[in-house]
Amino acid sequence: MIMVEGEVSGKKYREPFSKGVLARSLTRAEMDPNKAYTFASQIEAHLRKEGIKVISLDDLVGIVRARLKEENEEVAEKYGLWKRIRTCKEPLIILIGGASGVGTSSIAFEVANRLGIRNMTSTDIIREVMRKMVSKELLPTLFESSYTAYKSLRIPPSPELDEVIIGFRDHVDTVSVGVEAVIERALKEGVSIVIEGVHIVPGFINEELVSKHNVAMFVLTLQDEEVHKGRFYSRCRQLWARRPLKRYMNYFGAIRKTHKYFENQAQKYDIPVIENIDVTTTIDCIIETITKTYGREEDVRETKS
Ligand SMILES: Nc1ncnc2c1ncn2[C@@H]1O[C@H](COP(=O)(O)OP(=O)(O)O)[C@@H](O)[C@H]1O
Ligand SMILES: O=C(O)[C@@H](COP(=O)(O)O)OP(=O)(O)O
């Protein structure tokens, strides 16, 4: 049996070489799953041929990268990025916001999967917990959707202001308190997490948290209204979907207003905006942006992981 030796907090540990584990990390670098398993088998054969009984994790990664480079430069680079992010000292907090339907939950799931992040939550869930804690009378907009919050504003805004946006801001402002609590807890515990939803709005989450180099915020957009509408159709077609299409179509105008607001806020606070047309392009863009601020030499653990 070939043993792989790693090091955590100065302590060495050994575990058997697993083709499955290696193949999974290669699929995260977008290698086809069948190919990844074959590739992992070839690596195992190579180690056996060389008579290697124990190999350090760093040496294994080195061999994998060298072999990958010969086969596919792009996968080799993505594997390198993934490995770097995995060996960082600080937890990584990824915040993905955007108007209802632009694809925040789908993209958050894919990004978490690609980076091997095991924690993911939606701001809708945070909102649901908060709804159990306060009365409707105290915070009426919390009990609305982000795009219908204007209906429950206690004081109607003056006519020159857009009531949809005033309602949206009020609603987001409240849920942001819960979002901040999740971020603070993740930082305290040292746990990486992806948080997604309509309540991740630039300018609403404590600047001190958002400006940390290991907290990365993104806004997803869909410029084409028909494409945006299409996403609600595709979401409602899924068998488990419980949210009626009609509701989103009825409020589509209001949802687009929140979309515009996201764009403006992102520009104001210098938050990357990604047009979520193609899933792969969106994910690559998020991961590339993250590696510019996180995953630098000084972020990576001194000890071998
Ligand atoms: N880049 C994309 N290309 C095609 N379809 C997408 C893309 N992103 C999301 N979708 C689809 O659009 C629908 C809405 O996406 P979802 O992630 O539920 O949006 P949100 O969480 O922002 O409301 C889903 O059916 C999803 O599969
Ligand atoms: O408040 C909102 O805008 C949506 C957000 O959900 P997503 O569309 O982002 O999943 O929640 P709803 O009240 O429609 O269930």
From TrEMBL:
UniProt keyword list: ATP-binding, Kinase, Nucleotide-binding, Transferase
Family: Belongs to the 2-phosphoglycerate kinase family.
Gene3D superfamilies, A to Z: P-loop containing nucleotide triphosphate hydrolases (3.40.50.300)
InterPro entries: 2PKG, ATP-cone_dom, P-loop_NTPase
The organism's place on the tree of life at top rank: Archaea
One function term, GO molecular function aspect: ATP binding
Limits of the ATP-cone domain: 1-90
Record protein name field: 2-phosphoglycerate kinase
Lineage: Archaea, Methanobacteriati, Methanobacteriota, Methanomada group, Methanobacteria
Function of the molecule: Catalyzes the phosphorylation of 2-phosphoglycerate to 2,3-diphosphoglycerate. Involved in the biosynthesis of cyclic 2,3-bisphosphoglycerate, a thermoprotectant.
Enzyme class at the top of the EC tree: transferase
Reaction catalyzed: (2R)-2-phosphoglycerate + ATP = (2R)-2,3-bisphosphoglycerate + ADP + H(+)
PROSITE patterns named in the record: ATP_CONE (PS51161)
The enzyme's E.C. designation: 2.7.2.16
Cofactor(s) the protein needs: a divalent metal cation
Pathway this chain belongs to: Thermoadapter biosynthesis; cyclic 2,3-diphosphoglycerate biosynthesis; cyclic 2,3-diphosphoglycerate from 2-phospho-D-glycerate: step 1/2
